[in-house]
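DUF1836 domain-containing protein: structure, please.
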Amino acid sequence: MENIKHLIDQLGLENHIILEDIPNIDLYMDQVIQLFESKYNSTKRDPGVKVLTKTMINNYAKGKLLFPIKNKKYSKEHLILISLIYQLKGVLSINDIKSTLDGINKKVEEGDMDLDYFYSSYLDLSQKNAQQFKDDIQLKAVEASDKVKKMEDNDADYLEKVLLISSLVNISNLYKRAAERLVDQIVHEKKDD
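Here you go.
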């Protein structure tokens, strides 16, 4: 599959809201949405879909995925949490995200956490994950191509893509199940407290 490098480039793997992107002043909802749209616009599959909407943010607040907003303004900490929610919602349910971030919200509210350091650590791991992904997907593409060559089929390009899609979905499901188990551990440990 010759276009795998082009596919990787289209994914926007390096697109993240970094701490330098977040102003040290509180933002109104429209400004938050504008920040997310400008940063993640190129990563959307469908150009007509919004990255973040007022309804989404209101639902995050009502669902207590974020600590309370003051004066309709969102702090740097809120933006960091919204960014984490944005990443987590691709795989986890809203309830799982709430369970995952509940302790962080409490620590931030109590002033008992360096959220900037935590988020920087997340960004560092994300950067390493992106590099591993690039290497791995290229390897998977070669493996799929090798398997299809043995089939001697006229529709090799299509079969290669289906095999690669199936392999990537399998890996994705394994990671998703592992993440869900970790969420379950957080919930179980919280019940024991």
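Notes: The mean pLDDT is 93.
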